[in-house]
Write the structure tokens for this entry.
Amino acid sequence: MDVKISDYGVFEDKKFIEYNVFGLSENQMNYLDDNLVEETKIEDEFLKIKMYFDDELYPFQSDVAKIRIDDFISREEIEMNVFLSSFLEDMQ
């Protein structure tokens, strides 16, 4: 499984991150699409997940994040990968 952030920012006064998740089987994509509470959408060979954050939990708001955004994006992609991997364990 490979997780990539495709977009992030503010939409209608809500902070969000949009992830594209590649390398999932059709069953895994359907399971995540059906069971995650976040906005999800299956697009061809990947799953799109859009998460909204409260101000204090948004990972890209600090001054350090603005300077080292690539590091923060990489960390967020890794954290989402770990979360989805553990979530998929419940599928079996």
